[in-house]
Amino acid sequence: MFAVHVENLVKTYDSRRVLDGVNLDVPEGESYALMGPNGSGKTTLASIIAAVKTQDSGVVEVYGNKPAQAKEFIGYVPQENFSSPKLSGKENLVYFANLLGYSRSQANQLVIEMLHSVGLSEEADKRVAKYSGGMRKRLEVATAIFPGIKVLILDEPTTGLDPAARRSFFSMVQDIMGRKTSIILITHIGSDAELASRVGLIDNGKMIAEGTPDELKRKHAVEDVITVETAVNTDSVLSVLKGYSIDGKVAESETGYKIYARNGDRVMADVVRSLDQAGHKVMRIEMAQPTLEDVFFRLTEKNLQEATG
Amino acid sequence: MRQISAAYIKAAKELLREKAALFWTIAWPIIWVFIGSFSFTGSVPQQVVPYVKGSIAISMMVFALMIAGMSNLPASIAGDRANGLLAKLKSMPVKPYKDFIGRISAVITFSLLAAALVIVIGTAVGARFTGTGVEIAQAIGFVFLVICASAGVGLIAGTLIKNLQGAIMTGVGIAVITSAISGILFPYEGLPVPLQTFARVYPISSAQASIVHLLAGPDMIAYNPLTSGQITLTIALSFALLLVGTVLYSRLGWKLE
């Protein structure tokens, strides 16, 4: 039995299909990242699995039950901060423990352990209004890992966090992974998705690819990724770069253009020469291994960061 | 029971720690008890002044109850919906009606605390009250009706208005405007005839007039709100507002789609 089983799931808003025949299976203990841009349907999918919304058609099961009948197994952390800023971290957790049926004394005992496990023991009595974004998100994850919870659903948990807070957050998540809890991570950030054992790419309500991060990169982004930064970005630069990128696909980002090529070393030299001949100054050029964002671009021609805004 | 007490404790702590709620529900009516007690009693015969002050304190107590029900309650509902708590609660094995009972119980407690403080301060600045034990009990019943009607309006606003600021401002707006045009903030006898009719129909102003009649004396109110027809109308409309609010909240309050 899968921890989560989704079959031919359809959800429509105002005659627009936000989920269009999605299939997904997450075995017990697996960490699964669902990656896609805003509006791709990933949050809707997560909220249906979490029993927050209902589907129009299709099957969704959590340990063989409909989500509404499996709420005691589900730990859901929505994208928005839901902890009360007027309560302390400890008071927030005691509130959720009481909602789950723990007595006051049981809750107090359990909450101390949970605050320790998310690294907030010393901040337990501080009001959440004074927490940093990373601390608040860790507290909210703690509300979703009470004993008995088997499926943890994290919706864009690192949005707004700085790199240090993200590292700290994911080291905590990796500790949770050791508890045989299945994790579904909703994200638009490739480096976050890399931490999962399997990744599903979703776009326009459809799963467009699925596999381990390495499998996806091998299958869909076999080339080298060359990032080129020029003094100015013009159609002329774009035209030159398209000539060197496989399939003519060029991704634009804040740091410059990305092209995909085989034999990257040779292509880099050719690109610099061609741009120079066309009168464009190359400020920076570098080659890297493809990321999951590159895989997404190769499949959809959408830049994930830009599409997400 | 644990879910109810969890929702109650959370909502009560939030209300007591929310400066805006404390100001509008407790400080603002108390300020008006002071202003009213010292500004609007100059031309009143000396022996009547304590009862005028008593009626002012009662009016401000009713206003505090209105703000608690009409603004603090929808703010609590809309705020939790806006910040994602509702989505979180829907994913948990929590019964919506238990959250509702806990939440509304906290608002009632906060309302009564505010009401008690307003009356204590009113008494401290010279307000005096009349009334037998039975009349005091009847007045408490009308206080309960004010809470029901205000909470009903608050539930409707909190359910239908999804935006937090919108819910708060709508609640405050309804409380201020209806209390101004129904004889709660200004004397009934100074209102134009259509508004006097509104004051008799509006269950909160009718209940306020009843409390003043019972505890400050019949001379403090320009009509008799304690006729059987008037009382029946006040009770029916108070419960109707609460019923509509409860039904709307239970059907739509937890709906996120």
Q: How would you portray this structure in words?
A:
The complex is a heterodimer of chains A (309) and B (257). In chain A, 34% of the residues lie in helices and 27% in strands. Chain A is an alpha/beta fold and 309 residues long. Chain B is mainly α. Chain B has one domain. Helix content of chain B is 77%, strand content 0%. Chain B contains ten helices and no strands. In chain B, helix 3 packs antiparallel against helix 9 and helix 6 packs antiparallel against helix 9. The longest helix of chain B has 34 residues. Classes of the chains: A alpha/beta (309), B mainly alpha (257). At the A-B interface, strand 5 and helix 2 of A face helix 1 and helix 4 of B.
Uncertain runs of chain A with pLDDT below 50, 5 residues or more? Answer: none
DSSP helical segment count of chain A: 11
CATH classification, class level of the largest domain in chain A = Alpha Beta
Number of strands of chain B: 0
The tally of structural domains of chain B comes to 1
Task: Write down the overall geometry of chain B.
Answer: globular
CATH superfamily of the largest domain in chain A: P-loop containing nucleotide triphosphate hydrolases
Q: What series of H and E elements makes up the topology of chain A?
A: EEEHEEHHHEHEHEEHEHEEHEHH
Q: What level of helicity do the residues of chain A show?
A: 25-40%
Residues in helices of chain B, as a percent range: over 70%
Question: What fraction of residues of chain A sit in β-strands?
Answer: 25-35%
**Named CATH topology of the largest domain in chain A:** Rossmann fold
Q: Note the main sheet of chain A.
A: 6 strands, mixed
How widely separated are the two ends of chain A? 38 Å
